[in-house]
Specification:
- The protein is an alpha/beta fold.
- It contains 30 helices and 15 strands.
- The strands form 3 sheets. Strands 7-6-8-9-10-14-15 form a 7-stranded mixed beta sheet, sandwiched between helices. It has a 5-stranded parallel beta sheet with strand order 2-1-3-4-5.
- Helix 4 packs antiparallel against helix 5.
- Pfam families: Peripla_BP_6, TPR_6.
């Protein structure tokens, strides 16, 4: 029978075995006992208690820091690992020693020296199975074991990790476990014996017992490969045949192999129409058939309409409904509740039951990953509204229309360098994922355009004073490294002042006389407007002049300092600089930051006071439709509106009747004029658009006409 032979081909084994593991509980070796922390086998300890009582040690920590510096500068990962192991050897009973052991293991792993990686991680986990990075160490240990041929140990560790994992991580672990299982040859002979026993049964009791055993093996231990082998050539007259055939069908369903699924179910219903699983087989066949039954005017939206994220879901939905007003498009709203599992269920429902030709959303990162994976499997065009970078890499059915961190960094760098002509920058950012990601994106973009980042300082997420960071940016923090300061100190000492008070005053004057080193023209601060209003006064204290567009204030500073040539710095920010209006009617950023934030520029994906015609039209329509809320639309409403209008335009003008045709039409969308800008999808199905560059002055926030300014720059020949 060609069916089983094809599914057993080498190119498909890892995938089908992984999915079989998803549907079955895999066997554990009776000679091994799982430890309470989820590890098993010879690779890790069975004792949850650390074998070494580790402690903090300042000298060890310093040695670790030195080893880390050496490792970062060494392209040879194996040599870098040795630097860490020297710390481990010198300070074995310290936290630094264990961190060094972990880092050495990672470097060996990255260098593909799996034997040493396995040895190192084994040692670490034996001593301390509760180590902070234990899960990662176990994973790398398992992969290393697999690479050196220790498949059984690798399999048991991977399975234990997969039992506690979720989503894409779980799928990856199961795929790796399947590879390890195949290498270890863990193929059960029990299934063959049970099937033969069912065929040989003489009484109904014997037959029932044998079939029950087959069911237990199929659902408990046997892999897809075992089932496919046993089923090949098995006569439908064998009482176990329906169990195996329906199990194969369920696996094909999870593989999304629709052709084989339908063939398997049709054979099942023809040969065993009255069997136990016949009603389920009929429903599964009907469900598979419905996947291609598309309602061309039905669109789904996946949003958190209840739970903690309900407000953002409602905001997007207001925009979506406004875009579809007056249309015959049927909108199906799926409440994800911000739950990954519910998102997955919703995606399957809109594909199999609702017949939606496309879907909008979700918003949240984990929800979006699950939805995107299913959209690709089910081939449903998905226009996601998530900021998650790289989400469209999942496949050609995944699109994205949302302001991302990388797009903001590009827009700021482009404006600062191509319009303002700046080449040198500094970055001041919060040490949180948002700040770090944007700082890196901006830095990379500046360098790629031929610019330079002259300084970078980070601060804690809850910090409220920024004196130290401002001093470090301009070289006033480590004065002992400044030659001009050392010279001033020598002058004071040379004066021979004996009076302590006068000497202290002279030293303070020497400190205050050190000029700031301002070797950057722009300062990028990717943070919330509240924090920005606290940061900017600290910059002014260190003589960083940021209000360069105010000639009167510049003249005042010149008179106060006696300096004719002032080095000014332009502050740049992200959409988190957008703030609500305060009591004065001005944005709270300006109310709190005052003159220190004027002349700054930040980027956003939407600006309610924009003069762009499409934006104005949306704002007016929104205000008319939702007058009772008393609130203006924001980015979420605008993104929901534009995304729904894009889909509506495609459905109205091109009339696609299949999801494949809808995908092609959406991919070809160009110059859609929406509330968030003129939008086209690039070759990665990311929405390309001109973002809103906004400037701050003492009267409020104004949109910058970037094209006009670029034309002026070209006209001036600069």
């Amino acid at each position: 029978m060609h069916l089983a032979m094809e599914v057993l081909s080498a190119s498909r084994r890892a995938l089908v075995a992984a999915l079989a593991l998803t549907l079955t509980a895999c066997p554990k070796s009776p000679s091994r006992t799982d430890s309470r922390d989820g590890t098993s086998g010879d690779d890790t300890t069975q004792n949850n208690r650390p074998r070494v009582e580790v402690k903090q040690d300042a000298t060890a920590n310093a040695a670790l820091a030195q080893a880390r510096t050496q490792a970062q500068g060494n392209p040879d990962k194996k040599q870098a690992a040795e630097a860490y192991l020297s710390v481990r050897k010198a300070y074995p009973a310290t936290t630094a020693g264990q961190d060094a052991l972990y880092n050495a293991g990672v470097l060996y792993f990255e260098a593909k020296d799996y034997a040493n990686a396995r040895k190192t991680f084994n040692e670490l986990l034996f001593e301390n199975p509760l180590y902070a990075q234990a899960e990662d160490a176990k994973h790398k240990l398992a992969v290393s074991a697999m690479e050196v041929g220790a498949y059984r140990d690798a399999y048991q560790t991977l399975i234990s990790l997969a039992e506690r994992a979720e989503g894409a991580e779980k799928e990856q672990l199961l795929k790796e476990a399947a590879r390890a299982a195949e290498g270890a040859g863990l193929y059960s002979q029990a299934l063959s014996s049970a099937v033969k026993e069912a065929g040989d049964a003489q009484t109904s009791e014997e037959k029932s017992a044998a079939v029950t055993k087959v069911e237990q093996l199929v659902e408990g231990r046997a892999s897809f490969l075992d089932i496919a082998r046993v089923q090949e050539g098995l006569s439908p007259s064998n009482p176990a045949w329906p169990v195996l055939q329906f199990k194969l069908a369920r696996i094909y369903y999870h593989l999304r192999d629709w052709t084989r699924l339908e063939e398997t179910l049709q054979t099942y219903l023809r040969e065993a129409p009255n069997s136990t699983f016949a009603p389920q087989a009929k429903e599964l066949l009907a469900r598979a058939t419905r996947r291609v039954e598309v309602r061309p005017r039905t669109v789904a939206v996946l949003l958190p309409m209840t739970g903690r994220y309900q407000p953002i879901g409602e905001a997007v939905l207001r925009g979506v409904k406004l875009a579809l007003q007056g249309s015959d498009i049927e909108l199906v709203v799926k409440d994800t509740q911000g739950d990954v599992n519910k998102t997955g269920t919703a995606m399957e429902q809109l594909a199999f039951d609702d017949g939606a030709i496309a879907a909008l959303g979700p918003l949240l990162v984990d929800d979006t990953k699950r939805a995107a994976l299913l959209a690709e499997e089910l081939q449903v065009p998905l226009l996601t509204l998530s900021r998650q970078e790289g989400i469209t890499d999942i496949g050609p059915y995944v699109f994205r229309n949302m302001l991302t961190n990388s797009a903001q960094a590009r827009a700021i760098a482009d404006y600062a360098m191509n319009v303002k002509g700046y080449k040198r920058f500094a970055v001041l950012y919060p040490n949180i994922p948002y700040g770090v990601e944007l700082a890196n994106e901006f830095w990379d973009d500046v360098v790629s355009r031929g610019g330079a980042v002259r300084g970078a300082e980070s601060y804690s997420y809850d910090q409220t004073t920024f004196t130290g960071e401002a001093k470090r940016l301009v070289g006033r923090y480590y004065l002992e490294d400044r030659g001009d300061y050392a010279e001033a100190v020598r002058d004071v000492q040379g004066e021979g002042i004996t009076d302590a008070y006068r000497r202290r005053k002279a030293m303070e004057k020497a400190k205050s006389g050190v000029e700031p080193i301002i070797d950057f023209e722009g300062l990028f601060i990717p943070d919330d407007w509240r924090r920005v209003s606290l940061v900017t006064p600290a910059l002014a204290v260190e003589d960083i002049v940021t209000n360069a567009c105010d000639p009167r204030d510049l003249e005042r500073i010149r008179k106060t300092t006696g300096k004719k040539d002032l080095k000014t710095v332009t502050l740049f920010g992200t959409n988190q600089w957008s703030s609500p209006k305060g009591r004065s009617g001005l944005p709270e950023l300006l109310e709190r930051g005052g003159k220190f934030v004027t002349c700054s520029v930040y980027v956003d994906g939407f600006f309610v006071d924009s003069q762009r015609p499409a934006t104005q039209k949306f704002v007016k329509s929104y205000r008319d439709a939702y007058r009772e809320t008393g609130r203006d639309p924001g980015l979420l409403e605008a993104i929901g509106y534009d995304s729904a209008r894009m889909v509506r335009q495609v459905l109205d003008k091109q009339r696609p009747n299949t999801r494949a045709a809808m995908r092609e039409a959406l991919a070809g969308l160009k110059d859609f004029d929406g509330a968030t800008g003129k939008t086209s999808f690039n070759d990665k199905r990311e929405a390309d658009k001109q973002l809103f560059l906004l400037s701050v002055d003492n009267k409020g926030v104004n949109e910058i006409n970037v094209e006009k300014e670029k034309a002026a720059v070209r006209g001036s020949g600069s």
